[in-house]
Automatic annotation (TrEMBL):
SMART domains: DEXDc, HELICc. Pfam families: DEAD, Helicase_C. Keywords: ATP-binding, Helicase, Hydrolase, Nucleotide-binding. Belongs to the DEAD box helicase family. Residues 2-30 form the DEAD-box RNA helicase Q domain. The lineage of its organism: Bacteria, Pseudomonadati, Pseudomonadota, Alphaproteobacteria, Hyphomicrobiales. The keyword ATP-binding applies. This is RNA helicase. Residues 231-381 form the Helicase C-terminal domain.
Length: 440
């Protein structure tokens, strides 16, 4: 079994790892760190929760230890780009924790806060700068940050940055960096855009993949509730009343939806806070800190937070609404079952979301167990056999068949008898899968 001491890390870093309770490297750490210690570029495919922050932070800190020269004002030696403010702050905290006995100068540049403190921080020069692309470019454009002396570039959660539209800002940032640098790109999935970006940015990279592309965490017990859309709120309150739900994240598609769900839970006596892009940075940090400390039991979030929440002890993830892209499902449920723990993921799926459910099952190559919680009327309606068309040759618009009898209605069906939006053919569905703590 590989040990951290086998990876060539400095004693200062090994002591910090012991202090933080790290015993053995994860798969991504054991595979990536040796390449990075050699100074090679790297393409890493790994889900969140696999320990990839330490996989790149430890070799960077080791390199800084070997050469502790003071960075010039308004420069940084290592630049880490992250898609969200929360993730940027957590990466910076990890650098500080692993470097606690060497005290590197670490800064965070994100939007939503005042420029002045950031300018003052940059004026002192930084060994490590963690930033979101938009605000970083603001400082580059104003001349308050120069990247010509940056030796290391890390793109973390690269696929999420592309989802958020950061591809052009990333290319602008890369154009300001020196050609001679070490570049690391980490992504949970590998769409064509990421492959193209890696080909442009990386030089003869080592490739490390610790999980199959777009697979869900093995320790997450996944279950689906088929529900009527109007019943979601009440079912969610029922779920949150279960004593086994010690700490939960509920995901919605929209910011307004997150606020409404949090308010509904609060009115039902369930402590909940919403976190999304319309909240100020201070509001988001307070909500996340309260959740991490256990003051708030439920955090309601949009997908912007799906890969920016790194909190141990999340027992449950609830998809109040299924995401529009199946990849987001993988990242959402990755918020539980972290650090070797197990977790549960519950998805509330109404009839209009059934195509999204099938996309998730196709991407993850699995069939999710479900419990039918819809009304008897909804189940009965779906169980009705599709009407037979015995008059294919009847003239259009005659309002009936050749014998003058009314034509069976085909409203809500395609010409081949299938349902709109990719819904399943009409049939009676029985609950399958084992019983769950949520009545499944």
């Amino acid at each position: 079994m590989t040990k951290f001491s086998d990876l060539g890390l400095a004693e200062t870093l090994l002591r910090a790892l012991v202090h933080e309770g790290y015993e053995t490297p994860t798969s991504i750490q054991a595979q990536a760190i040796p390449y990075l210690m050699q100074g090679r570029d790297l393409l890493g495919i790994a889900q969140t929760g696999t320990g990839k922050t330490a996989a790149f932070a430890l070799p960077i800190l080791n390199r800084l230890l070997e050469d502790r020269r003071r960075p010039a004002p308004f420069t940084t030696r290592a630049l880490i780009l992250a898609p969200t403010r929360e993730l940027a702050a957590q990466i910076a905290d990890s650098f500080r924790a692993y470097g606690q006995f060497m005290r590197p100068s670490v800064g965070v540049i994100v939007g939503g806060v005042s420029h002045r403190p950031q300018v003052e921080m940059l004026s002192r020069g930084l060994e490590v700068l963690v930033a979101t692309p938009g605000r970083l470019l603001d400082h580059v454009a104003s001349g308050r940050l120069k990247l010509a002396a940056t030796q290391i570039l890390v793109l973390d959660e690269a696929d999420h940055m592309l989802d958020l539209g950061f591809i052009l800002p990333i290319r602008q940032i890369v154009s300001k960096l020196p050609r001679e640098r070490q570049t690391l790109l980490f992504s949970a999935t590998m769409p064509k855009e990421i492959a193209g970006l890696a080909a442009d940015m990386l030089h003869e990279p080592a490739e490390v993949s610790v999980t199959p592309v777009a697979t869900t965490a093995e320790r997450v017990d996944q279950h689906v509730f088929l529900v009527d859309g109007g019943a979601k709120r009440d079912i969610l309150v029922e779920l949150m009343s279960d004593a086994q739900v010690a700490r939960a994240i509920v995901f919605t598609r929209t910011k307004r939806g997150a606020d409404r769900v949090a308010q509904h839970l609060g009115a039902a006596g369930v402590g909940a806070e919403a976190i999304h892009g319309n909240k100020s940075q201070n509001q988001r940090l307070r909500a996340l800190d309260g959740f991490r400390r256990g003051h708030t039991r439920v955090l309601v979030a949009t997908d912007i937070a799906a890969r920016g929440i790194d909190v141990d002890g999340v027992t449950h993830v609830v998809n109040y609404e299924l995401p529009e892209t199946p990849e987001a499902y993988v990242h959402r449920i990755g918020r539980t079952a972290r650090a070797g723990a197990s977790g549960r993921a519950i998805s509330l799926c109404d009839n209009g979301e059934r195509p999204l459910l099938r996309q998730i099952e196709k991407l993850t190559r699995q069939t999710l167990a479900f419990t039918d919680r819809r009304s008897a009327e909804a189940r009965h309606e779906e169980a009705k056999p599709a009407p037979r068309n015995r008059n294919a040759g009847a003239p259009k618009g005659d309002g009936g068949n050749r014998n003058g009898r009314p034509q069976p209605s085909r409203e809500g069906q395609h010409r081949d008898g299938s349902r709109p939006n990719g819904a399943r053919p009409a049939r009676a569905e029985k609950s399958r899968g084992r019983r769950t703590a949520f009545g499944g």
